């Protein structure tokens, strides 16, 4: 829309017509206070804090409901306005408990801040405040009713933002109270309950301390924590999460996850896992000492002993039974730098292509299918998470983002709500996102291949594709989808192999993304934790990675290695002498026979003594994703920074462990990690040199034309190499990365490997909204929420019938 | 059925059929019923709006917005259906005029609704009755059913090909707030009765998103009469810019309380002393609340004022909904202020802070003051609260609570001060509650 000019506090401003005054002022650096206004949600105009004086209007006007007009003259601060705001605060504070000293929100409370600004310190009421008891609505959501100022942000966030509608308003007038959707009267124990997605968005939106987090409440004060912005470790959507961290005796402890930093691609959003399930890091079950199997029993030993034992086992297998007798399994939750390093370690130190990981989506097929193709305007066809929020049209094929990729679901909902995006859903289940869909087509279970054929124009596939199979409804769906000029297709991970390829071929005008399950599922694939391709899906024998390794005298083997399942078959057959598992639990994930590893020397590095770790000969305690630096790539190929938030005594980053193992094996470390540009290898214990703490320093040095003196344990030491060798990652800007921006990576360069991927190697984790793979059982919050959802709410609802 | 009153000074337009059994459709037809709508059908929407504008009819709900102008704001072309909405949520304390119309002349409302529909191009009308008026629903529903049976509603009304009009009746759930037009629409749509942000105004985006004309029941009931007698004739009955007559519900300490139809601009003094027979028992007049409880009070020496929108505004109060409450010398203004604010506190929808919290604090403070535990500072605080509610709330309910409160404090400050010194009236309206056991906030 055309711009209009107007004056605010004497400043001449312009903004597009239709912009809300409060937003226009904010963009110009003029802050107008408001409780109920929340960008992106419907307007309330209920708090009356944003009142301003607009010339020629008889009364003070609310800036949140006024759109800017040509020639408008606005005053945002004057004695009259200050008095109006002060009076409103006085009215609120009359009933608001002044328990700020113990309130969770103390120090980050909007009511406190505004009172500080407008000074409603004196009270002239002598009557008692209206009081109500506090309620616990779920294991993670508490509601202190008297503190509520009725801004309705939570109600709108839950209904409009989450499409859950678990909150409403009970009673009227001064008896009005926010209430959950399982009212006390319907609950056996007479307790109000929330039947919802437990996302905690209501807590984030609450301007005061009325809604508090069960995981955080009364644990500390905001100013006692460091607030570290990093990327969530759970699903593959890539939400930015701010971790509140406090020093404790054995390191530093994460006390809170929230979404203070709204600069991520998740904007306002964070789901229950990002918010509460950081607590696995504090689990007493964390491994904190290395273990070596002695007389059939895992026994705590020194790092020196454990690393020596691990190195000896791996080197012996390589040297005596050949590199092909060694296997490596990587992780979905380690950083790109660690994954890259691990495959380089496998290929150049151990000399094997027997490397794989738990594949949660068929990124390999997507990369090969998109390879060499572009949109009509020449742009690449990998969709970013940002596209989901902005694209005018979306096709969702399979998957259930609401449960498995909550940010994707949030972005779809937001896009529909704010931009009226057209969403088409094709799914074998009646997933919740069909509520946002313009059209929903129920696909036959296992019918996605036929669906792709039908989309491509094959009418004979109609019956096999959909259970409705009404010709006109189906063709209308197809015509609508194919008629979309700017289409983004988001594909669930049950669609893979040939079906995925057929889908990509059927919609040559669309951008694509497949949804993986874990924080760095995509990164593991991109970084070449695959037996048949090098990082960036490059061929084993040719291409830039192979050339570089050869040039540095450590060529990678050129024959494809064993995939994950084949490695276990080989182990069972007695031909796999040693296996190195990093941050993965294949025994439990693939339900493999534990005895198949009986004859294999097994090194496992992990956070917990998992089913796989329990079988190991050497166990190395590893740092979690919240305890180290680096980068990760989400399902869509959006690369983001992982910042070190917490610290746990006794653990080391996977990066450091891989480097130390290489060193112990006798490999020249510098050829593995090109650190320090001419400096001597520092393999000592220098604190601060670990886990990426030197990275900012190094970037600063580089920016000032000085030599970065990185340690070999600094993941950024290998980022240069990734940028140099991995297609797509060459585009990333390190400063953008360090500034916390997300960058979209499209690895579909020409000349990728073209191999038929085995469908059974992709194993979607089938996590629910309340589970997160192996981490689930170490997260008390997730367990409590899951129990609440499964038992309590279900019971209460059942009893209501 | 309440007894009807009459007085020679009355000019009977809208009350013409009261007491004549006009709720029966055949009787209504005998009394010139459904003639106006047929004339409207012949002459078309432009003629209707011209007549309405000429009549000078101003909204009888209280705001006094010119009805013809309101109708002309509705866009001619609309993608969404247009609606006529009759606001029969008569809830302002002291007001009892719409109730009489529904009781005695429901077809006038139906006929007026059809005419409004013809004027703006709507095919559907809603008659929304106050929740507490549920007992009137039977009468209104029967009237609607009879109109359908005669072919006055439904398809091809009055035999006119292609002209359809339907009427749906609905009652509220007992909230004062839904008398506010946008809250009424929310309530009608089945949602919480809270007001909407304006703009957009209902004429553009109203019920179910369609352009909607919302008129008070009395306004709508006037429409057939105006078309029959002609707009200019109707206008002549009143004063300048205040066309026609109006139903005034006179209650309180008068000899003959009741609903009287008086020409606009009629003297308030005469309304009390002549029409309503003067103060009961020959006592002295203390104060008058002239247009429903939200209007600032007039003192006994301020009643020489004409009953129209402009003269009342000049006198610092409002014509409001025509509910004149007369208070004699025995009334304690402190009690009356408490009684008034109790109502608004109870009826505040809770949407915005100044109204929700302001009415609650006013009530709490006045309750304590009334119970004898007040002090001088309370009087200032009450004034401060009311002043800071005025003009700051989301909808006019906050103003409706603040305006009379300010009136009481400003005009009867001395009485508040004397109350502190123990001066009480003999016959309290409200049982004094022992202070220290405050009522729990709102029973519902």
Keywords:
heterodimer; A: 801 residues; alpha/beta; Ubiquitin-like (UB roll); Alpha-Beta Plaits; Rossmann fold; 4 domains; seven-stranded mixed sheet; five-stranded mixed sheet; 29 strands; globular; B: 444 residues; de novo design (two linked rop proteins); 3 domains; four-stranded parallel sheet; 17 helices; 9 strands; disordered C terminus
Describe the structure in your own words.
The complex is a heterodimer of chains A (801) and B (444). By secondary structure, chain A is α/β, with parallel strands linked by helices. Chain A folds into 4 domains: 3-77, Roll (Ubiquitin-like (UB roll)); 95-282 and 770-801, Alpha-Beta Plaits (2-Layer Sandwich), CATH 3.30.70.20; 291-360 and 521-753, Rossmann fold (3-Layer(aba) Sandwich); 363-514, 3-Layer(aba) Sandwich (Dimethylsulfoxide Reductase, domain 2), CATH 3.40.228.10. Chain A contains 26 helices and 29 strands. In chain A, the strands form 7 sheets. Chain A has a 7-stranded mixed β-sheet, sandwiched between helices. Chain A has a 5-stranded mixed β-sheet with strand order 2-1-5-3-4, covered by helices on one side. In chain A, α2 crosses α3 and α13 (448-456) runs parallel beside α16. The two termini of chain A are 51 Å apart. Chain B has 3 domains: 25-236, Rossmann fold (3-Layer(aba) Sandwich), CATH 3.40.50.11540; 245-328, Ubiquitin-like (UB roll), CATH 3.10.20.600; 333-420, Up-down Bundle (de novo design (two linked rop proteins)). In chain B, 42% of the residues lie in helices and 11% in strands. Chain B is built from 17 helices and 9 strands. A 5-stranded mixed β-sheet of chain B has the order 6-5-9-7-8, covered by helices on one side. Chain B has a 4-stranded parallel β-sheet with strand order 3-2-1-4, sandwiched between helices. The longest helix of chain B has 21 residues, at 353-373. Chains A and B meet through α2 of A and α13, α14 and α15 of B.
Task: Give a brief description.
Chain A is α/β, with parallel strands linked by helices. Chain A has 26 helices and 29 strands.
């Amino acid at each position: 829309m055309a711009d209009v000019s107007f004056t605010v506090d004497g400043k001449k401003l312009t903004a597009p017509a239709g912009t809300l005054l409060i937003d226009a002022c904010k963009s110009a650096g003029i802050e107008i206070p408001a409780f109920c206004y929340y960008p992106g949600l419907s307007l309330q105009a209920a708090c009356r804090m944003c009142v301003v004086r607009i010339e020629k209007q008889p009364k003070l006007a609310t800036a949140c409901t006024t759109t800017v007009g040509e020639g408008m003259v606005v005053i945002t601060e004057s004695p009259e306005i200050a008095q109006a705001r002060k009076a409103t605060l006085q009215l609120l504070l009359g009933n608001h408990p002044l328990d700020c000293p113990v309130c969770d929100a103390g120090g980050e409370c909007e009511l406190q801040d505004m009172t500080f600004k407008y000074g409603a310190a004196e009270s002239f009421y002598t009557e008692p405040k209206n009081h109500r008891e506090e309620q616990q609505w779920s294991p993670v959501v508490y509601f202190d009713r008297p503190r509520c100022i009725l801004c309705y942000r939570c109600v709108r966030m839950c209904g409009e933002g989450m499409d859950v509608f678990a909150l409403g308003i009970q009673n009227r007038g001064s008896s009005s109270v926010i209430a959950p959707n399982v009212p006390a009267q319907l609950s056996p124990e007479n307790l109000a309950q929330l039947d919802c997605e437990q996302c905690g968005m209501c807590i984030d939106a609450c301007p005061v301390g009325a809604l508090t987090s069960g995981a955080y409440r009364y644990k500390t004060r905001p100013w006692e924590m460091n607030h570290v912005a990093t990327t969530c470790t759970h699903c593959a959507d890539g939400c930015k999460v701010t971790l509140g961290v406090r020093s404790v005796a054995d390191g530093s402890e994460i006390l809170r996850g929230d979404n203070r930093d709204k600069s991520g691609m998740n904007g306002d959003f964070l789901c229950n896992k990002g918010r509460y399930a950081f607590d696995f890091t504090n689990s007493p079950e964390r491994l904190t000492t290395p273990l070596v199997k002695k007389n059939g029993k895992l026994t705590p030993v020194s790092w020196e002993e454990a690393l020596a034992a691990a190195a000896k086992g791996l080197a012996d297998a390589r040297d005596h039974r050949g590199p092909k007798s060694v296997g490596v399994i990587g992780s979905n939750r380690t950083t790109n730098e660690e994954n890259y390093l691990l495959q380089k370690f496998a290929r150049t130190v151990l000399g094997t292509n027997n490397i794989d990981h738990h594949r949660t989506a068929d990124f390999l097929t997507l990369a090969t299918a998109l390879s060499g193709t572009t949109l009509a305007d020449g742009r690449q066809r990998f969709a970013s998470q940002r596209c989901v929020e902005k694209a005018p049209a979306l096709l969702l094929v399979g998957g259930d983002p609401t449960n498995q990729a909550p940010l994707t679901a949030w972005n779809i909902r937001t896009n529909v709500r704010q931009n009226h995006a057209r969403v088409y859903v094709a799914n074998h289940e009646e997933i919740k996102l069909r509520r946002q869909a313009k059209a929903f087509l129920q696909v036959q279970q296992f019918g996605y291949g036929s669906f792709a054929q039908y989309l491509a124009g094959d009418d004979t596939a109609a019956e096999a594709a959909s259970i409705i199979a009404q010709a006109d409804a189906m063709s209308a769906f197809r015509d609508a989808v194919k008629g979309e000029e700017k289409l983004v297709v988001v594909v669930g991970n049950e669609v893979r192999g040939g079906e995925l390829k057929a889908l990509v071929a059927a919609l040559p005008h669309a951008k694509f993304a497949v949804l993986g399950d874990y924080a760095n599922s995509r990164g593991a694939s991109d970084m070449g934790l695959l037996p048949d391709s090098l990082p960036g899906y490059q061929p084993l024998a040719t291409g830039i990675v192979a050339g570089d390794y050869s040039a540095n005298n450590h060529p990678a083997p050129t024959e494809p290695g064993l995939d994950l399942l084949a490695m276990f078959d080989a182990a069972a057959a007695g031909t796999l002498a040693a296996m190195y598992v990093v941050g993965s639990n294949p025994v439990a994930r693939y339900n493999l026979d534990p005895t198949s590893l009986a004859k294999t020397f097994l090194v496992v590095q992990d956070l917990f003594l998992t089913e796989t770790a329990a079988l190991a000969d050497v166990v190395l305690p590893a740092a979690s994703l919240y305890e180290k630096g680096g980068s990760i790539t989400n399902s869509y190929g959006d690369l983001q920074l992982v910042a070190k938030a917490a610290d746990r005594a006794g653990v080391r980053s996977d990066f450091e462990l891989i480097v130390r193992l290489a060193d112990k094996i006798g490999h020249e470390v510098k050829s593995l990690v090109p650190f320090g540009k001419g400096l001597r290898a520092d393999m000592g214990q220098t604190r601060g040199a670990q886990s990426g703490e030197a990275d900012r320093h190094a970037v600063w040095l580089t920016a000032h034309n000085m030599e970065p003196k990185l340690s070999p344990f600094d993941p950024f030491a290998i980022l240069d190499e990734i940028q140099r060798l991995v297609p797509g990652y060459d585009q990333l800007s390190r400063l953008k990365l360090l500034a916390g921006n997300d960058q979209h990576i499209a690895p579909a360069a020409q000349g990728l490997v073209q191999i038929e991927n085995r469908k059974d190697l992709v194993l979607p984790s089938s996590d629910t909204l309340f589970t997160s793979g192996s981490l689930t059982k170490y997260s008390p919050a997730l367990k409590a929420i899951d129990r609440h959802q499964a038992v309590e709410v279900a019971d209460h609802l059942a009893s209501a019938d | 059925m309440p007894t009807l009153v009459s007085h020679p000074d009355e000019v009977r337009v809208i009350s013409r059929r009261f007491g004549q059994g006009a709720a029966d459709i055949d009787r209504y037809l005998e009394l010139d019923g459904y003639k106006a709508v047929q004339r409207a059908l012949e002459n078309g929407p432009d003629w209707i709006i011209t007549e309405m504008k000429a009549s000078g009819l101003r909204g009888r709900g209280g705001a006094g917005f010119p009805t013809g102008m309101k109708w002309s704001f509705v866009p001619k072309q609309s993608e969404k259906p247009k609606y006529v909405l009759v606001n029969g949520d008569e809830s302002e304390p002291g007001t009892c005029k719409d109730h009489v119309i529904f009781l005695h002349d429901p077809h006038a409302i139906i006929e007026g609704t059809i005419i409004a529909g013809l004027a703006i191009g709507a095919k559907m009308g809603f008659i929304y009755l106050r929740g507490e008026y549920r007992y009137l629903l039977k009468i209104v529903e029967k009237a609607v059913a009879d109109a359908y049976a005669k072919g006055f509603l439904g398809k091809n009304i009055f035999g006119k090909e292609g002209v359809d009009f339907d009427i749906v009746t609905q009652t509220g759930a007992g909230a004062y707030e839904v008398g506010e037009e946008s809250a009424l629409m929310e309530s009608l749509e089945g949602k919480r009765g809270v007001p909407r942000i304006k703009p957009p105004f209902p004429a553009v985006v109203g019920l179910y998103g369609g352009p909607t004309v919302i008129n008070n029941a009395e306004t709508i009931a006037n429409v057939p009469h105006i078309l029959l007698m002609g707009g200019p004739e109707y206008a002549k009955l009143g004063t300048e810019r205040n066309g026609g007559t109006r139903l005034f519900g006179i209650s309180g300490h008068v000899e003959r309380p009741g609903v009287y139809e008086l020409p606009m601009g009629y003297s308030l003094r005469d309304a009390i002393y002549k029409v309503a027979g003067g103060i009961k028992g020959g006592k002295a007049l203390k104060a008058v609340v002239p247009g429903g409880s939200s209007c600032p009070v007039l003192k006994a020496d301020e009643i020489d004022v004409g009953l129209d929108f402009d003269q009342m505004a000049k006198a610092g109060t409002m014509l409001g909904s025509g509910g004149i409450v007369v208070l004699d010398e025995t009334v304690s203004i402190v009690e009356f202020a408490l009684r008034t604010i109790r109502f608004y506190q109870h009826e505040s929808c809770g949407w915005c802070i100044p109204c929700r919290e302001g009415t609650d604090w006013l009530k709490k403070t006045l309750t304590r003051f009334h119970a004898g535990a007040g002090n001088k500072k309370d009087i200032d605080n009450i004034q401060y609260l009311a002043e800071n509610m005025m003009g700051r709330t989301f909808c006019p309910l906050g103003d409706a609570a603040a305006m009379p409160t300010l009136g009481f404090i400003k005009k009867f400050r001395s009485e508040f001060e004397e109350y502190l010194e123990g001066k009480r009236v003999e016959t309290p309206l409200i049982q004094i509650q022992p202070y220290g056991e405050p009522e729990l906030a709102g029973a519902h």
